[in-house]
Amino acid sequence: xxxxxxIRGVHRCVEDFIAQRVKAAGLSVEQYRILEAxxxxxxxxxxxxxxxxxxxxxxxxxxxxxxxxxxLVYRAPDSNDRRKVLLxxxxxxxxxxxxxxxxxxxxxxxxxxxxxxxxxxHLTRTLHRILESGPAxxxxxxxxxxxxxxSGGRAI
Length: 156
Prior knowledge:
- This protein is mainly alpha-helical and 156 residues long.
- Helix content is 62%, strand content 10%.
- The strands form two sheets. Strands 1-3-2 form a three-stranded antiparallel β-sheet. Strands 4-5 form a two-stranded antiparallel ribbon.
- The protein is globular.
- It has two domains: 1-100, Arc Repressor Mutant, subunit A, CATH 1.10.10.10; 102-156, no CATH class.
- The longest helix is centred in the first third of the chain and has 20 residues, at 3-22.
- Pfam families: MarR_2.
- Residues 1-132 form the HTH marR-type domain.
- This is MarR family winged helix-turn-helix transcriptional regulator.
- Keywords: DNA-binding, Transcription, Transcription regulation.
């Protein structure tokens, strides 16, 4: 099996793990990821958020529009530059995210049981290096803006 297929398959397994848990809260995986990114750094521009989540801007806008309608997030002008709009977590969104806050810890615990602590640590470091190197060995702009990888509930 090609490496790209292995990565795609692992990605699908992780997304399914998360989807099973966020569905009960009425969220999609993408909506959960937006709340997660805003929890790490509230008041982000759409461009910054799109890069961090590996989502194109038009898709992100559609998802955020639905989240604004559901009162999970809200848009507000940047206090430093009124031409810029930033995205913030609304009170309802913060509560929903807190209710789901164990997802990453649960995922980490599951992977640690399957792989062992050492192999999971090695995998995490390797994935970080791949993201940082980008295609053809070039530094990826996305990797520098991506949310930090969580290991055992700790940012690494």
